[in-house]
Write a structure and sequence with these properties.
By secondary structure, the chain is an alpha/beta fold. It is 36% helix and 15% strand.
């Protein structure tokens, strides 16, 4: 792993120089008491490290999240009292810079940024007079080393090294545990799986899916969309889903309302799917919402494992697993958001004899 913090001789007394995830060298005060987080997932990383008390301003997109979708970004439940009254530094969103004047006047000594490149970071730093450190999650929906490097660098900057080390070790430990339980199962013996309703510029329906779906890869699921040449998000033809006819379908909660409405309008199509007839359809939380909710990706992987390989996950109490993961990342419990992590029938129950024939 790259060593991202380096002391530099030219730094002024009481300062240090770091190299951020864009490769920029940035001079920072020895201690950071106030900061702002800009771009997809920047505030999430600050919350993961327990540094909410240092946030001096907030993006409108973070402050005004629809309460009905608060479960899609669990870190908002860890906002301390008064967070909604913080100065708004900009609208928020990928590639959208905040108002430099608001950044300067809110008292921030640091801008933590995700989703902007080095020239944009230089521009914001020049306009606001506040150091800008670029962090990264890597590719959307893929848990890359960039996440660990970002947590470690931010932990160093904020003097939260132990917390960053605890979290990165916990993530790696969970990933390894999930993978190793089923890695020896041959692909042909794994149940075929389809991940439906994946969000893409808004909520989508049954034909919205993802090849290389992160929680599915962690749980060694046989994702039928992985058979296609393309990777990442894609829309498929309904006929393709019928041809794949997966044994299990997982439904992204963000797209679930669209899917249930469509099932009511087109019951024959859904009844033609074995997973639907056999009541093998289950709801997952969306792990991508303003970048990757790492804790949700892990939770989804654990749940997928318990459904596909119950004998390999027989020791897992999912409710306790869920509680432990949220405490690891955020230090608090998170209210459940039904119907996530439950079976979600899409057509009326089919008699057992018909299910066996299906």
């Amino acid at each position: 792993m790259l060593l991202l913090l380096a002391l530099a001789a030219p730094a002024a007394a009481g300062e240090r120089t770091i190299t951020d995830l864009s490769g920029r060298q940035v001079s920072l005060p020895a201690r950071i008491h106030r900061l702002v987080a800009v771009g997809p997932g920047a505030l999430r990383l600050v919350m993961y490290l327990g540094a909410a008390d240092r946030v001096a301003g907030i993006e409108r997109l973070e402050r005004d999240l629809d309460p009905r979708q608060s479960g899609f970004r669990p870190y908002v439940h860890a906002f301390p009292p008064g967070f909604a009254k913080l100065p708004v530094i900009g609208a928020g969103g990928a590639g959208r810079l905040p108002n430099p004047e608001m950044v300067a006047t809110c008292g921030a000594a640091l801008v933590v940024a995700v989703g902007i490149d080095a020239p944009a970071a230089d521009l914001l730093q020049a306009q606001s007079g506040v150091p800008v450190v670029v962090l990264s999650y890597g590719d959307l929906g893929v848990l890359r080393e960039a996440v660990f490097s970002s947590l470690e660098l931010l932990g160093t900057i904020l003097d939260r090294r132990e917390r960053a080390a605890e979290l990165t070790a916990g993530i790696r430990r969970q990933m390894d545990d999930i993978r190793h339980r089923t890695v020896d199962i041959p692909l042909k013996r794994r149940p075929t799986v389809y991940f439906a309703g994946i969000g893409y510029r808004g909520s989508q329906g049954i034909t919205s899916t993802e090849a290389g779906y992160l929680p599915g890869r962690l749980a060694n699921a046989a994702n039928v969309a992985d058979r296609a040449e393309e990777t990442g998000h894609r829309f498929i033809n309904p006929e393709q889903l019928l041809l794949w006819n997966p044994g299990v379908i997982f439904l992204d909660l963000f797209g679930l309302p669209n899917i249930t409405r469509d099932a009511a309008r087109n019951p024959a199509f859904y009844a033609a799917l074995a997973a639907v007839r056999q009541q093998r359809t289950y709801a997952l939380m969306p792990h991508n919402s303003y970048n990757t909710n790492v804790e949700v990706a892990l939770l989804n992987a654990w749940y997928i494992g318990t459904i596909l390989y119950p004998e390999r996950f027989a020791d897992i109490d999912f409710s306790r697993c869920r509680e432990a993961i949220y405490h690891l990342f955020l230090g608090i419990g998170i209210p459940e958001q039904p119907p996530a992590y439950t079976p979600v029938p899409l057509v009326p129950a089919v008699p057992a004899a018909d299910r066996e024939r299906g």
